[in-house]
Specification:
alpha+beta; Beta-Lactamase; Heat Shock Protein 90; five-stranded antiparallel β-sheet; five-stranded mixed β-sheet; 11 helices
Length: about 525
């Protein structure tokens, strides 16, 4: 006994529409999430600003050093002593200063404190040096947008607009530089204008890079180049180009909506309609056996057509079973009624004997004949069920089936010729059922001879079975393959022989048709050959 098919486990599963929605939403949200990744890029912009300040300050420091060396008297005191730098190998003569500021790790200092009055004014020689280099600082700032201050060895501003004469020695980064060490810091930026709300998405928009580069002369600090700059801001660019950004967002939303509509039109819509049709067909609604409104893709068109074909076959099978059951009940009712009537008469004769032996024998013969008819009908029903649901395939040969047929029908002169040893994709028992039904038809229609010829055509075997009997009248040619159609019902015909032949052949991928014949009846059978024979 076969086990029942397991039902699909009931658990939550996302619908195709939900999957498509999530995918499209994720694709649409990717550009929005990328804004947060711009913070990493902002950190890169800070280091880029620091690197540019280092390069610019290095050039000014070289000029500052030359001016001190040539324009400041030797007796003027310089700043702190700096340990000599270890000599570099000849192949590595450079001493680069790499940018190291990182917004994610460095603590941002408060806004830069204001300059303070110095404890002592700058030496006149340094004041004159600052006056000479002031035009250079202004010209550099106009191009680079950076702010520059030149400080003497004590941290007093000697060039730098309004802060000239004031001291910056109290700043952390300047204090480091006065000791001969380069230093850079991030400080909170004070803007004169209110920032747009978009800027608040990045800490890099509210900071300013400050570096202090010492000027070393004769192993002493001769001054400091103090520079600052606000790093480039990608959010500022986005805000300035907000109309284009909005257009870009719309250009992403519209294609996403179009893609969603395309998915609905070609996938989710046809699939949902196909599911609805399946439920309607399962409830017996024959109006559902029509093509879908929209097939979407070629695959769905094929799937829809396969479903409709299967549903129509199942519907036809259901109708056939209903008609078949009606015919079977009718065919069984007549012999059963006859048997019951004869048995009742015989039973009455037992109680009051008034029937002679000849009448009793007649009733018993009728019972036996009707019982044989029931047996024949049962056998044909079994063969018909076997034809509709073939158990197994095989590699039968006509030569073997013809030999068995001769034994089963000794009254027929059975002749055969052609490709009788070509293996067919059907079992020998089923071939014998087909030929036996045709032979039985021939016998009951007055045939004395049956001729079987076979011809191989590609992967098919064409078999012609002809007899010399009465033949088929023109009026019956279209009905002979219908179940329970017979012209000899009075003589025991069931009308199932040719229906069994057709069902058996179609179940194995073959076919049968009635062909014209000068005498008797002729059928053309088509059998598929096995793969071995095809190769």
């Amino acid at each position: 006994m076969s086990e029942p098919a397991a039902d699909t486990r009931r658990k939550w599963r996302p619908s195709l529409s939900l999957v498509v929605f999530v995918v499209l939403t994720s694709v649409l949200a990717l550009p929005l999430f990328s804004i947060y990744f711009l913070k990493v890029y902002q950190n890169q912009l800070i280091q880029q600003a620091e690197a540019e300040l280092i390069a610019q300050s290095a050039a000014l420091a070289a000029t500052f050093r030359r001016e001190v060396d040539t324009g400041v008297p030797q007796g003027v005191a310089l700043g702190a002593k700096v340990p000599p730098v270890a000599p570099k190998p000849s192949e590595q003569p450079y001493q680069p200063i790499w940018p190291e500021l990182e917004l994610v790790t460095e603590s941002v200092l408060p806004p830069r404190p204001v300059a303070r009055p110095p404890s002592s004014p700058a030496h006149p020689a340094f004041a004159a040096l600052g006056a000479r280099m002031a035009p250079d600082l202004v010209a550099t700032q106009k191009v680079t947008l950076a702010g520059f201050r030149l400080l003497d060895p004590n941290g007093v501003v000697i060039a730098g607009r309004e802060e000239v004469g004031l001291s910056l020695a109290h700043l952390e980064e300047v204090g480091e530089a006065l000791q001969g060490r380069f230093n850079g810091v991030l400080r909170v930026r004070i803007s004169k204008n209110e920032q747009p709300s978009l800027y608040s998405m990045s800490r890099g928009t509210g900071v300013r890079v400050f570096i202090a580069m010492p000027v070393i002369l004769r192993e002493q600090v001769a001054g400091v180049v103090y520079a600052s700059r606000t790093p480039s801001n990608v959010f500022k660019y986005l805000y300035e180009q907000r109309s284009r950004v909005i257009l870009l967002v719309l250009s992403m939303i519209v294609p996403t909506l179009l893609i969603g509509f395309l998915f609905h039109r070609t996938i989710t819509g046809p699939m949902r309609e196909l599911v609805e049709r399946t439920n309607l067909v399962g409830k017996g609604d024959r109006d559902a056996l029509r093509p879908l409104r929209h097939h979407g893709t070629s695959e769905f068109a094929l799937l829809s057509q396969s479903f409709l074909d299967m549903a129509r076959r199942l519907n036809a099978r259901s109708s056939f079973i209903s008609t078949f059951a009606t015919h079977v009940s009718h065919e069984l009712k007549s012999p059963l009624t006859s048997i019951k009537g004869a048995a009742e008469l015989l039973r009455e004769d037992v109680d009051a004997p008034d029937m002679d032996d000849e009448d009793r024998r007649k009733f018993l013969d009728n019972i036996i004949a009707d019982a044989d008819r029931l047996g024949t009908i049962a056998g044909r029903l079994r063969d018909f069920a076997r034809a509709e649901n073939p158990i197994a395939l095989g590699a039968a040969k006509l030569s073997v089936a013809v030999a068995s047929l001769r034994s089963a029908f000794p009254s027929l002169d059975i002749r055969s010729n052609g490709d009788l040893d070509t293996p067919m994709r059907i079992s020998e028992d089923n071939v014998l059922i087909i030929l036996s039904n045709l032979a039985d038809n021939a016998v009951h229609h007055g045939s004395s001879k049956l001729e079987i010829s076979a011809v191989r055509q590609d992967n098919r075997l064409k078999v012609t079975v002809s007899d010399d009997g009465e033949g088929v009248s023109p009026n019956n040619r279209t009905q002979i393959f219908d179940s329970f159609f017979t012209t000899r019902r009075d003589s025991g015909g069931t009308g199932m022989g040719l229906a069994i032949v057709r069902a058996m052949l179609e179940a194995h991928g073959g076919a049968v048709r009635l062909i014209d014949s000068e005498q008797g009846t002729a059928f053309e059978l088509t059998f598929p050959v096995t793969d071995a024979a095809a190769s």
